[in-house]
Design a protein that fits this description.
elongated; 2 domains; Beta-Lactamase
Length: 293
C-alpha cells in the first residue's frame, strides 16, 4: 500500500472556522460542476477530527451526500488528498491511495477530484471536490482550473484578518466581530455583477471565442474574480450613500442602480465616482446621489 506523507499545512493551527454562505461559493460550485461533469461537487469543511459536507451541488438521489452530513476526517477522501494522495482518481477501488478509505465503500465512490482551499494565511480551511459513482477521467489541466476556483473562494469564506469571523446572529442577521450587520445587500451587489448587469472595469477582454469548454471555463473564472473585486467598490459607495443620505444599505444600492440605469451608466463606474466624492467634494455627481457632503 502507498505510504502517504502528512501535509505540512495541517500542522498549523486553524485560524477560524470559515463560513460557506457567500454567493461566490454558489458561483464556484456551478463552474466546478460544469468543469468536471461529475455527479456531485461540494465544499468540505474540516475540523481536527471531522469532515462535513458544507455545500453540495449535484445529483439529489445521492442522499448520503447532503449538506450537514459529517464523517470522520480520517475516513474521508479529502484527508487522503491533504496527506499527499493524487488529486484525482477514476478507479478508487483499485487505487492504493483511496481503496481503503471507509467512505469509498459507504458511498460507492469510484471517481474523485479535489483541491485544498486556503485562507489568506495559507492554511487549509476546506476542500473543493467532485465525486462520481462512474469512472470519470480528470486531467491535470482540469485540476489546474479547480485550483484557480479555490483561490477565488479564499477572500469570501467569512474568515477576516486578526481572527475575526463573520457569524450568523440569533436574530437571523449577521455579526462581524461585535458589530451587527446584514448580508443581503452584499449578495444583491454580487448577483448584479455576475449577471452582467454591471460591467466592472478591467474585465478580461472578450476577443476570440474560447476554442473549447476548458478555455471557456477559465474565462469564467477570470470574470468571476473581477466581479468579486468590483463588488468592493460598489459596497464602498453604498457605505458613502448610507452615511450621506441617512438611508438603509439596501435603499442606497437601489438608488445607485436606478440612477446608473437612468443615465446609461455602469453601476461600477458611478460607484467609483461616489467613493471619490467622499474625499473630494468637487467630484460631480447626479443630484440624487449628491445629498449632504
Amino acid at each position: 500500500m502507498q505510504t502517504l506523507t502528512r501535509h505540512p499545512l495541517l500542522d498549523v493551527p486553524p485560524v477560524s472556522r470559515p463560513q460557506f454562505t457567500h454567493p461566490a461559493v454558489d458561483a464556484v460550485l456551478s463552474t466546478a460542476a460544469a468543469l468536471t461533469g461529475m455527479e456531485v461537487v461540494f465544499l468540505g469543511g474540516l475540523t481536527e477530527d471531522s469532515f462535513t459536507f458544507e455545500r453540495v451541488r449535484g445529483d439529489v438521489s445521492w442522499t448520503s451526500v447532503s449538506e450537514g452530513v459529517v464523517c470522520e476526517r480520517a475516513d474521508s477522501f479529502c484527508q487522503r488528498l491533504l496527506d499527499g494522495a493524487p488529486a484525482t482518481t477514476s478507479d478508487a477501488e483499485n487505487d492504493p491511495a483511496y481503496a481503503d478509505a471507509a467512505v469509498r465503500e459507504q458511498l460507492g465512490i469510484r471517481s474523485y477530484a479535489g483541491v485544498p482551499v486556503h485562507d489568506a494565511g495559507g492554511h487549509v480551511v476546506a476542500t473543493l471536490c467532485a465525486i462520481d459513482r462512474r469512472s470519470v477521467e480528470i486531467d491535470d489541466e482540469t485540476i489546474g482550473v479547480l485550483r484557480e476556483l479555490a483561490t477565488v473562494l479564499t477572500p469570501h469564506l467569512g474568515v477576516l484578518s486578526d481572527g475575526v469571523v463573520i457569524r450568523r446572529s440569533p436574530d437571523g442577521g449577521w455579526q462581524v466581530g461585535d458589530e451587527q450587520t446584514g448580508d443581503l445587500t452584499s449578495a444583491m451587489v454580487l448577483a448584479d455583477l455576475l449577471s452582467a448587469e454591471i460591467a466592472p472595469g478591467s474585465r478580461p477582454p472578450r476577443s476570440d471565442p474560447p476554442q473549447d469548454e476548458l478555455a471557456r471555463l477559465r474565462l469564467s473564472v477570470k470574470q468571476l474574480e473581477h466581479a468579486l473585486a468590483a463588488r468592493v467598490v460598489v459596497e464602498q459607495a453604498i457605505g458613502v450613500l448610507t452615511e450621506r443620505q441617512r438611508s438603509a444599505p439596501r435603499d442606497a444600492f437601489e438608488r445607485l442602480r436606478k440612477v446608473a440605469r437612468s443615465r446609461g451608466r455602469k453601476v461600477h463606474d458611478l460607484a467609483r465616482e461616489v467613493v471619490l466624492s467622499a474625499a473630494d467634494p468637487a467630484v460631480p455627481l447626479p443630484p440624487e446621489l449628491a445629498g449632504r457632503r
